[in-house]
Amino acid sequence: MTALLPRRGLAQILALIVILAADRMVSPQFFDLRLQDGRLFGSLIDVLNRGTPVALLSLGMVLVIAMRGIDLSVGAVMAISGAIAASLADGHSLPVVLVAALGAGLVCGLWNGFLVAVLGMQPIVATLILMVAGRGVAQLITEGRIVTFSSPDLVWLGNGAILGLPVPVAIALGMLILTGAVVRGSALGLLIEATGGNARASELAGVGTRAMILAVYVWCGICAALAGVIAAADIMGADANNAGLWLELDAILAVVIGGTSLFGGRFSLVLAVLGALIIQTMNTGILLSGYPPEFNLLVKAVVVLAVLLLQSPKLSGLAGIAARLRRAKA
Amino acid sequence: MILKALFAASATAALLLALPANAGQLTIGFSQIGSESGWRAAETSVSKQEAAKRKVNFKIADAQQKQENQIKAIRSFIAQNVDAIFLAPVVSTGWDSVLKEAKEAKIPVVLLDRDIDPSGKELYLTAVTSDSVHEGEVAGDWLAKTVGSKPCNIVELQGTVGASVATNRKKGFDTAIAKHANLKVVRSQTGDFTRAKGKEVMESFIKAEGGGKSICAVYAHNDDMMVGAIQAMKEAGLKPGKEILTVSIDAVPDIFKAMAAGEANATVELTPNMAGPALDAVAAFKEKGTVPPKWIQTESRLYTAADDPQKIYDSKKGLGY
User: Fold this and answer.
1) What helix, strand, coil percent values describe chain A, rounded to 5?
2) Which residue from A32, A43, A235 is facing B195, i.e. has the nearest CB?
């Protein structure tokens, strides 16, 4: 248990509980669940279901950030893979659609990884290229319109249910377990943390840093592509202008809320996904609250600030000093 | 994107080859913003159709969302001495000097779809635009008439916060339903004009309103959000179009598909045909010297299931939406 949820996860869990309680306050039926057409139905399920794209993005992003990188292109990759999936959906079987869409994500990841690992570009600039160009590529595929489809297989991927759980949630859970098994089940996680902490030292110690950087960007691309397919399946269409728009920022935020430093090093997959859920719990709460939409961003910013302050080592240090001072006076 | 490149290429070619027009035939240059949305693409194709219908020699320059490209295009239209210039301005300011050049060359300019800063009012002949406040009113009036005297709780999906279209469509709708005490907007949230957000917001509306049982109608500032909301209602086991009335704005093809399936009730058209009235105004001005009013308002037509939605869908889907 301690391995799964390290002590540093306490702040995140606390934050999630507080936000859930706040949601319960603005919306008394928040925890109500019922079965609708063989699928669980309720605000909690909405949180999980709507949080899926950012959770998937954060799974790839956390590894990239642990390696001292960053991937700004994930939103654009979502748009590309969604566009490919929607264009192929009617007329091709689901495996073909998935291979094509995820393959596109893989290629995008390779491109980013190549720029960073081989050409040695700054990750923020290297991935900015695809962030801008990628959306153009997606618009090229859809010819600027919303491409709709009716293939029941792909629709199931976005709106179906497995044991009452929405399919996207099951996929995200599966990806979390898979990524966890690969990264933590081997020495890979340790090597990633070592490289993120000190790339030169790790290289001298014999770690193949270049291949590893390439690999994490590829994984990030595949995760983003999967999120894009799910986003397209959800609305039964690919909206190249808006799919995944600004979600790269939410993904980075989820990773940071999950306690992974932007300077690389130690990371936690579970906490990054928890970070994504914290963001979505807040978003859903805002939608349920009935406040005018002008407040959305303000509320979001205040809550994020509070969560990050909760984790700030300097602030907890200050609190410790204050407590000691009080004790000294008494 | 390919289309865009073709446009740019053909526009350049048209400029280079600028042959003198036949006597009596009007030559009109159109500086289009670019292909920012499906509606914009539809506007471009409808403009071409309308020009062909009137046998006008029509040249389109695609500005790729840049004002400097539009200014360049206008200057080259002036150099070719066209009979009139159509301009869909990408921004509302910074047009004074180039419009003065057109005025000095005695070439009338007609604004399409968007207006410009008030300081330039005497620099153009007329502006053909839709009134988005009126669009909201048409939607509200339809709902009031359909509901009658029953009490009706409405949920509203707003456009992007701060967008003038969203503000206006909300204002118009609110004005229309204010006359009816039985109509009440119980929830209003932004869906950013997108399908995905429309769906997400509608999901939360349904939960917040007791599983959607107390919702009588949905009003969305555009059809895309409504398409998402319809999916959310269906997934919640509700019947949009029957149990819950829907009214939205834009009249994009997909809302007609939903209407044909009985899942949507009404939409108010933001017509892509801005060039038609503009062409007529220019023709009258050139032939008889009739000066058009400063603002030509396009029709905000209401479509319901009674208008053969399948047929409209078929006719609209090829326009590039």
Assistant:
1) 75, 5, 20
2) A235
